[in-house]
Amino acid sequence: MKKIIVLGATGSVGTQALDVARKEGYAVTALSANRDVDSVEKYAREFNVKACAMADEGSANALKCKLSDTDIKVYSGDKGIVEMINDTDFDTAVNSTLGMAGLMPSLAVVSKGKRLALANKESMVIAGEILNRVAKENRAEILPVDSEHCAIHQCLKAGEKREVSRLILTASGGPFFGKKTSEIKKMTLDDALAHPTWKMGAKITVDSATLMNKGFEVIEACRLFDVPHDKVDVVVHRQSIIHSMVEFCDNSVMAQLSVPDMRFCVQYAVNYPDRCEGVTEKLDFFNIPSLTFDKPDTEAFPLLAKAYHAVKVGGALPCVLNAANEIAVAAFLSKKISFADISELVISAVDSLENDAKNAEALDEILAFDSLGREHVRNIISRAK
Questions:
Q1: Which letter, b or e, does each residue of 196-223 get, where b requires 16 or more Cβ atoms within 10 Å of its Cβ?
Q2: What is the pLDDT of residues 360-382, one digit of tens each?
Q3: CB atoms inside a 10 Å sphere around CB 362
Q4: What is the DSSP secondary structure assignment for residue 286, as one 8-state letter?
Q5: DSSP alpha helices (H): ranges in the chain?
Q6: What is the DSSP code (8-state) at residue 200?
Q7: What is the pTM of this model?
Q8: Mean pLDDT in the chain?
Q9: Over the Cα atoms of the chain, what is R_g?
Q10: Minimal CB count within 10 Å: which of 32, 128, 131, 197?
Q11: How many CB atoms lie within 10 A of CB 250?
Q12: What phi and psi values does residue 21 have, to the nearest 5 degrees?
């Protein structure tokens, strides 16, 4: 029986990971979440976990009270999540934690020499080179859970690394596909949250609307698969049936197709290299729509181009990109700024901090630029009030 822990258990990917665990019969030994105490209690009892961790002390104390009739240990805060990882027995950690908060848990998993099923793309964006090095030193595996990178991981099996010409990430295009800059400026929060294909959390749905999510995935692909930025392309594929492709030197292209369902990606990452009976629906070729492909509009959606620039420059600049975006999107979700302001704020932070950030290599240096990126955006928003 495979033993897993699920980090970010109450989010979209986390709940789907638990659904896979039910169907596959995995033993879930630990859970972490932000503040949804009731859901964590329910899952903890259902899976008879050994431990849980909550993002803050208040939520942890509330969970302790609810689980007082059990032997389940409850941890608190960022350090508590890492401590739980270090104390718990497991084979694979599914890290679906949102944002920067997922980095230290990712590092804790690979430091322990365990498999990391990575849905927290920010870990790779912020400190991918460090994460890869620590994984190698401890003989840990990193298996991608993002549908695009899961697809590439499978397609790469068709050839040798030296034979790879380029990686082709597919993008749904988000809810604003085809709209020009003037139209995008008028878009509301409700408009941005109306994703055409995937059901995701609010933050990642907004990132999909700005194409920042795809920009993060470009950076993630560069670091997961050790390829330069100019060997990663993005193609808008509205139907989300082809999840990504790999082009080889002989101009053949391998593509991975399936219904858009993250449960498959979790199952693949946990079971690899084995394949088991599917937990998702089969792809019905006679009922899927025509498959279309378009170029992304980087004029209307400039954050995709900024992500390419950030990974090309390197250092802590991708970290700045993520930090600025987290604050800007949070402000948009709170209706403090407009949709168009997100791109402007992120670009401002990246441009302002680039010269200093490009030479940062150590983890403490990178984390310092995370704070600077956040502060830059907060200051602009504060001055604009």
A1: ebbebbbbbbbbbbbbbbbbbbbbbbbb
A2: 999 999 999 999 999 999 999 99
A3: 11
A4: T
A5: 12-24, 37-47, 57-66, 77-87, 103-111, 121-137, 147-155, 181-184, 189-192, 202-210, 212-225, 262-271, 302-313, 317-333, 339-357, 363-384
A6: -
A7: 0.94
A8: 95
A9: 20
A10: 197
A11: 8
A12: -60, -40
Assigned token pair, 53: 């961790």
In this prediction, residues 51-64 reach a mean pLDDT of 96
Contact 148, 221 (CB under 8 A): yes
Q: What is the pLDDT of residue 191?
A: 86
Phi-psi region of 325 (alpha: psi -120 to 50; beta: other; left: phi over 0): alpha
Q: Look up residue 112 and give its two tokens.
A: 């322990």
Whether pLDDT at 197 is above 70 = no
* Whether residue 273 has a cis bond before it, omega within 30° of 0: yes
Dihedral pair phi/psi, residue 256, rounded to 5°? -110, 125
**How far apart are the C-alpha atoms of 124 and 276, rounded to whole Å?**
28
The rounded distance, in Å, linking the Cα atoms of 354 and 66 is 47
Residues 253, 246: contact at Cβ < 8 Å?
yes
Confidence tier at 198 by pLDDT (50, 70, 90): low
pLDDT at 199 (0 to 100): 66
Q: Is 326 left (phi over 0), alpha (psi -120 to 50) or beta?
A: alpha
One-letter identity of residue 160: E
